[in-house]
């Protein structure tokens, strides 16, 4: 569900119910920044430089501003102590390290508490465009800059709460679609131009261009009920995207919605194909 790129086979890593050895009950682990190798830091720097260039004029304006929270005193993979001091001062969010994918309830509980779980590993140089699981580049470069924006910070926390509620009600697949088509693969209209805000695109060299410039994918105005009905695939570029007008509007639409009523209303309706014409 987290591959940034096309032509990689779908792999769903089994998720253990109990945290692995060395992890806390909430699945967090110490970052141990000093244990990353020079090569791992170099991969971060390479990805950062390449993606920063690619996103100029493609990402929403707030992304470039938020990237400042990642400009730390040392190059390489961000040291979370220093990063968190900056991020927390902006919006009260922190980033915590986790070994990899964590169970849904653990993931949403972190979001509900304004903590973003980041994989404590980085892809290798010969797999720059291939991810099986979200690594520190996807999680920190893709997600963290916009968490410095109050409306996105609040939206992510709201998704954490709604995620826990959806789990209780057995409708996580619906909430996951909302997460997917906003936080991961969302587009926004800014001053009439299409821009990227979804972390899955922001951290993907190929999809950055594809999502905006390809004639292939369908781009629809964001509509909550429609999103809840729309399937997605995680092993290729998206065939459809949803476009928001503003983060405040997105936040309000989710805060003001009666999600339980919406889940019921869409339950009998067919799923929608994101590429439908
Ligand atoms: N774990 N580390 C990590 N990162 C995620 O993005 C994540 C997860 N566990 C569950 C999960 N996402 C999904 O269920 C949501 O994206 C819907
Ligand atoms: Fe992500």
TrEMBL record:
Coiled-coil spans in chain: none
Gene3D superfamilies: Aromatic amino acid hydroxylase
Keywords recorded for this protein, A-Z: Iron, Metal-binding, Monooxygenase, Oxidoreductase, Phenylalanine catabolism
UniProt superkingdom: Bacteria
Recorded family membership: Belongs to the biopterin-dependent aromatic amino acid hydroxylase family.
Enzyme class: oxidoreductase
Molecular function per GO: iron ion binding; phenylalanine 4-monooxygenase activity
Organism: Sphingomonas parva
Name listed for the protein in its UniProt record: Phenylalanine-4-hydroxylase
Keyword Metal-binding recorded: yes
GO terms for biological process, alphabetical: L-phenylalanine catabolic process
Pfam families (alphabetical): Biopterin_H (PF00351)
Pathway of action: Amino-acid degradation; L-phenylalanine degradation; acetoacetate and fumarate from L-phenylalanine: step 1/6
Keyword Glycoprotein in record: no
EC number(s) stated in the UniProt entry for this protein: 1.14.16.1
């Amino acid at each position: 569900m987290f591959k940034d790129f096309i032509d990689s086979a779908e792999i769903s890593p089994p998720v253990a119910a109990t945290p692995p050895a060395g992890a806390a009950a909430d699945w967090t682990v110490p970052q141990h920044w000093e244990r990353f190798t020079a090569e791992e830091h170099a991969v971060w720097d390479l990805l950062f430089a390449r993606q920063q260039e690619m996103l100029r004029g493609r990402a929403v304006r707030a992304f470039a501003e938020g990237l400042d929270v990642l400009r730390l005193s040392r190059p390489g993979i961000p040291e979370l102590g220093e990063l968190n001091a900056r991020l927390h001062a902006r919006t009260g969010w922190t980033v915590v390290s986790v070994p990899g994918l964590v169970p849904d309830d653990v993931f949403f509980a972190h979001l509900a508490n304004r903590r973003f779980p980041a994989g404590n590993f980085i892809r290798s140089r010969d797999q720059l465009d291939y991810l099986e699981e979200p690594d520190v580049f996807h999680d920190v470069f893709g997600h963290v800059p916009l968490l410095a924006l109050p409306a996105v910070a609040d939206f992510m926390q709201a998704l954490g709460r709604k995620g826990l509620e959806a789990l209780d009600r057995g409708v996580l697949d619906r909430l996951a679609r909302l997460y997917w088509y906003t936080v991961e693969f969302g587009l926004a209209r800014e001053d009439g131009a299409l821009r990227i805000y979804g972390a899955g695109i922001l951290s993907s060299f190929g999809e950055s261009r594809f999502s905006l410039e390809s004639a292939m994918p369908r781009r629809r105005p964001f509509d909550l009920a429609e999103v809840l009905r729309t399937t997605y695939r995680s092993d290729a570029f998206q065939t459809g995207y949803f476009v928001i007008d503003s983060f405040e509007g997105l936040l309000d639409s989710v805060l003001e919605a009666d999600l339980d009523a919406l889940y019921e209303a869409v339950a009998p309706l067919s799923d929608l194909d994101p590429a439908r014409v």
